[in-house]
């Protein structure tokens, strides 16, 4: 039972049948067809040799199939992780060099260790640091950056850069190297992909195919573009006419090897590995949950951390780059009818076959074709209306989203996402730094107390009752100090302050220090501090502290009890506003 | 009225009288006597020439007197800020060099700009990032580090280092340079200060002095040690016997000059300036609030940001290092009877007189005397029992405190405080990442609903009502998704989920996305999502979103209304647990 929790494979393998194998196998074939060009393209996007993409699509998929809780999630190289990899490795080594590839393996292994560690320690909540607006702004910006980075390949220009400005400058400076043949082919593939996305499915259905089959064939349109342009490049010898091709891809399976253990490299890559892990995890879980829900299945986020982590560790020891769950391939996997994680393992088998047999023809694949494929694929990541929607719903969230988006576009991926996280946290602290609280008075003739600003209630100028409506912790503790001291400074005749704590679920050490400060400052000012309606668990903790003994006043069970004791006791003559209402008990 | 808010001086100066001047003047004389040696000592602690301490005690004090809201706070060089300054400048230039002094001015100006900016933008809440346990652990560690850094001066050894290990290693390596005369003098002053702290006050009272006068004289004990040891050093020519003296201090007032505007230096010092500003602000406000409360006065934290910021800007343009409000000098100022901020301005005048007349004798002041003074002064910062107290009260807070303390001691001040802040935030997110929520059922025969785990209530296997007990925002939004999906996976016959939102004050954009995800996933699973008891302001915002239109179910005013509609409508035969209770309406 416990072993099955750690290795979900043991659960689903027991009931495995031949017909399930047929469905998983079909899904694997379709996903493999889609994955071969994507694996090459995302490796090139990350500045890595194309075979790294194939290597990242073998062992990691098998490990995820063994450990993952999602039957559908298609793990492997993905666009955003590749962009982040390129950015992380930019300062470390020359793209394409052996050190660069070595650093990519370290990045994968480091991401894997982070994810497994977070899973074992059940730290999945750390992904909460990435709020939806930050992720959304970041993914949109990444999509735009990736599309911009591929423009050069379509134009036949060798461009570079890690933000929009650098890319635009580089494109402009190298404009003389534009290659007409490449441009025609790139635009042709782009147009074909756009048109097939819009019209192919309905056309196929009109030809008599079922909806499902037509949908899958449409998704496989890039494969036909890959085949046709590869044949063209080979037949017309386009490589000699200046068209950039993928070039020699070493055939065969990757060798297993430990990544470099150089500690300097590890510590340099650590921040990037944290971001890649968290972004990959958040995106994977979101895809997996959405697809699992369609079949009323559940995924376990902490187990997903371990499975994705092991997949990345696998990439690190088998020549691959960081991997994560891909959105489009997972959807295809789902639509093609994958039933168990075995579909993923079979996909790995398919990629292995491709690596053993297809590398020679793939050398003739034009890079412009891959660029057009990537541009069309990442266009689904770009969600500009979400900006307007988020800004309209909440200005604070809109600011965090826009800041992430703009910084990612014009500064770089790491700065962008970190600024977004810092801003989200800052805005959250700001929102919670002023806890709801209200000075309350007694509803005449009852035991109820209500906000003095909103209701006609009895008050007493020698007594102030402050109802605290939230848990007290470091972000709002100082505001409470300010609020109470302001109350006392405003009401010179005051001699009792009661904090009514019915909504306080927690008082952390900072808030305890603030209560101690409030107590001693009030004592210095000749005012007594009382508490009322303190919840059981909160009171249990307070009982063990010095504060409980130093508290100048009492702890009342109810606000009414506090009112009766302090109001009657201190003011037997029924003066002030109370006498005026005539409702004193 | 508005002008008075920005320049509080205009308020208190109107009613100023001769007798107030006498009281402020007396306080200023006593604080000046205390400040002269402290100013020299803290400048040396920061690795700066002694006169920088004097310069930091003139213009900054005048500016604070003009703008501050505390009548008592004694601004100037303080121990913790000096330690942080030394740490920030360590990598920038050689201690004592002109570049080092220049960088200190930049640090002061940068801190000043940060504080003024935060004040104008009313960003004082950012200080909430520093929780009490983090500040407390950091201040204790700083006290220990400062004391350790002064041991070398007492032993006559030239030691250095920015953490305990480095300091211990340096002391050990230089042990041969120990100077006996310095050691005797250092230990002598130390013992005198400790003994005077314990016995002088009661002795003076026994001699017939009043409590207040005896207290002030006791606080001035370091002054007598300074005078006696300076005379000894001068008379016995101790400088030639290897006793380190303060040495030549340029007399006169500081020249006004812009600090360096080199952008590299500014960006290097920015992180340190942020930390110095925040720590200084938090400590100053805490001292000022404690002392203000004793006279039932109030300080305005946002105006304090501006006043402390202008004081630091003043330090930056008049040759001074970063300043902040000092605890011990503020207490003396209070006890000596300071009534208005003019006491601070008069202290600046006193320091100016000292800079014009006392620099020659001060050159003979032994550094061992200053070291003993510092050690005794910072011993009040060290609060080791607080560690035990905090750990006993809350393990999470204890962990944050210990991590800050240990990292500050053994790694460095900046790493220590940043780790503490990160840990506090992480622990806070962890605590709030799982919002209180409960599946509720109907209390038979009533319109009340209670937790199914704690009460005997009616439930319906086709309907699940989840009461959400907290506001929904990015840190807990994903947990809600998990909770709802787990609920549905557990209860196969379910066809309605109701979220009862009576405790939800806020739904941020992340939580809105989560609600949308929950809605569409439930729809895919054939389950309808309803809301109940949504508060007015929350509903107003939801009304403008797509979610409102995509919601598969209804928004009910009350949980009971939801129960009646869904329970009756879906199950006219009264099957299941409801029929068993026999209380169906």
TrEMBL record, chains A, B:
<feature type="transmembrane region" description="Helical">
    <location>
        <begin position="177"/>
        <end position="195"/>
    </location>
</feature>
<feature type="transmembrane region" description="Helical">
    <location>
        <begin position="399"/>
        <end position="427"/>
    </location>
</feature>
<feature type="transmembrane region" description="Helical">
    <location>
        <begin position="336"/>
        <end position="356"/>
    </location>
</feature>
<feature type="transmembrane region" description="Helical">
    <location>
        <begin position="61"/>
        <end position="80"/>
    </location>
</feature>
<dbReference type="GO" id="GO:0055085">
    <property type="term" value="P:transmembrane transport"/>
</dbReference>
<dbReference type="Pfam" id="PF00916">
    <property type="entry name" value="Sulfate_transp"/>
</dbReference>
<dbReference type="InterPro" id="IPR036513">
    <property type="entry name" value="STAS_dom_sf"/>
</dbReference>
<feature type="transmembrane region" description="Helical">
    <location>
        <begin position="216"/>
        <end position="236"/>
    </location>
</feature>
<feature type="transmembrane region" description="Helical">
    <location>
        <begin position="133"/>
        <end position="157"/>
    </location>
</feature>
<dbReference type="Pfam" id="PF01740">
    <property type="entry name" value="STAS"/>
</dbReference>
<feature type="transmembrane region" description="Helical">
    <location>
        <begin position="368"/>
        <end position="387"/>
    </location>
</feature>
<protein>
    <submittedName>
        <fullName>Sodium-independent anion transporter</fullName>
    </submittedName>
</protein>
<keyword id="KW-1133">Transmembrane helix</keyword>
<dbReference type="InterPro" id="IPR011547">
    <property type="entry name" value="SLC26A/SulP_dom"/>
</dbReference>
<feature type="transmembrane region" description="Helical">
    <location>
        <begin position="100"/>
        <end position="121"/>
    </location>
</feature>
<dbReference type="InterPro" id="IPR002645">
    <property type="entry name" value="STAS_dom"/>
</dbReference>
<dbReference type="GO" id="GO:0016020">
    <property type="term" value="C:membrane"/>
</dbReference>
<keyword id="KW-0812">Transmembrane</keyword>
<feature type="domain" description="STAS">
    <location>
        <begin position="453"/>
        <end position="573"/>
    </location>
</feature>
<feature type="transmembrane region" description="Helical">
    <location>
        <begin position="269"/>
        <end position="293"/>
    </location>
</feature>
<keyword id="KW-0472">Membrane</keyword>
<dbReference type="InterPro" id="IPR001902">
    <property type="entry name" value="SLC26A/SulP_fam"/>
</dbReference>
<feature type="transmembrane region" description="Helical">
    <location>
        <begin position="26"/>
        <end position="49"/>
    </location>
</feature>
């Amino acid at each position: 039972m416990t072993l099955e929790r750690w290795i979900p494979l043991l659960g689903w393998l027991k009931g495995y049948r031949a017909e399930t194998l047929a469905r998983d196998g079909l899904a694997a074939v379709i996903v493999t067809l889609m994955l071969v060009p994507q694996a090459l393209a995302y490796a090139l996007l990350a500045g890595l040799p194309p075979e790294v993409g194939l290597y990242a699509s073998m062992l990691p998929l098998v490990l995820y199939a063994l450990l993952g809780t999602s039957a559908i999630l298609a793990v492997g190289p993905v666009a955003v992780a590749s962009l982040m990899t390129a950015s992380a490795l930019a300062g470390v080594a020359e793209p394409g060099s052996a050190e660069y590839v070595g650093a990519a393996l370290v990045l994968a292994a480091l991401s894997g260790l982070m994810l497994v560690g977070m899973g074992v320690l059940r730290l999945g909540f750390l992904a909460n640091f990435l709020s939806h607006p930050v992720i959304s702004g970041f993914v949109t910006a990444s999509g735009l950056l990736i599309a911009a980075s591929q423009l050069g390949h379509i134009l036949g220009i060798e461009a570079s850069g890690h933000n929009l400005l650098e890319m635009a400058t580089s494109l402009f400076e190298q404009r003389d190297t534009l290659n007409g043949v490449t441009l025609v082919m790139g635009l042709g593939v782009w147009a074909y992909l756009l048109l097939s996305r819009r019209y192919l499915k309905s056309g196929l259905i009109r030809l008599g195919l079922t909806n499902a089959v037509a949908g899958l064939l449409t998704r496989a349109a890039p494969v036909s573009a890959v085949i046709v342009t590869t044949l063209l490049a080979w037949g017309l010898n386009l490589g000699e006419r200046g068209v950039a091709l993928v070039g020699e891809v070493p055939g065969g399976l990757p060798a297993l090897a430990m990544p470099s253990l150089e500690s300097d490299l590890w510590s340099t890559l650590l921040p990037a590995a944290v971001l890649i892990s968290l972004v990959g995890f958040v995106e994977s879980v979101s895809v997996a949950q959405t697809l699992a829900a369609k079949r009323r299945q559940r995924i376990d986020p902490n187990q997903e951390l371990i499975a994705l982590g092991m997949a990345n560790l696998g990439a690190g020891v088998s020549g691959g780059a960081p991997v994560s769950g891909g959105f489009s391939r997972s959807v295809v996997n789902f639509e093609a009818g994958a039933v168990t994680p075995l579909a993923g393992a079979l996909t790995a088998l398919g990629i292995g076959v491709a690596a053993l047999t297809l590398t020679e023809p793939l050398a003739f694949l034009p890079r412009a074709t891959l660029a057009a494929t990537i541009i069309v694929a990442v266009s689904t990541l770009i969600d500009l209306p979400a900006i307007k929607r988020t800004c309209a719903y909440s200005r604070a969230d809109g600011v965090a989203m826009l800041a992430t988006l703009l910084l990612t576009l014009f500064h770089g991926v790491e700065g962008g996402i970190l600024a977004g996280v810092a801003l989200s946290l800052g805005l959250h602290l700001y929102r919670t730094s002023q806890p709801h609280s209200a000075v309350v008075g007694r509803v005449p003739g009852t035991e109820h107390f209500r906000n003095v600003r909103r209701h006609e209630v009895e008050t007493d100028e020698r007594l102030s009752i402050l109802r605290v409506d939230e848990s007290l912790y470091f972000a709002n503790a100082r505001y409470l100090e300010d609020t109470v001291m302001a109350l006392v400074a405003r009401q010179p005749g005051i001699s009792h302050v009661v904090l009514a704590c019915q909504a306080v679920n927690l008082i952390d050490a900072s808030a305890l220090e603030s209560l101690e400060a409030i107590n001693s400052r009030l004592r210095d000012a000749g005012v007594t501090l009382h508490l009322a309606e303190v919840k059981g668990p909160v009171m249990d903790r307070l009982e063990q502290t010095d504060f409980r003994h130093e508290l100048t006043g009492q702890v009342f069970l109810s606000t009414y009890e506090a009112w009766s004791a302090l109001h009657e006791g201190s003011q037997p003559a029924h003066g002030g506003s109370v006498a005026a209402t005539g409702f004193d008990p």
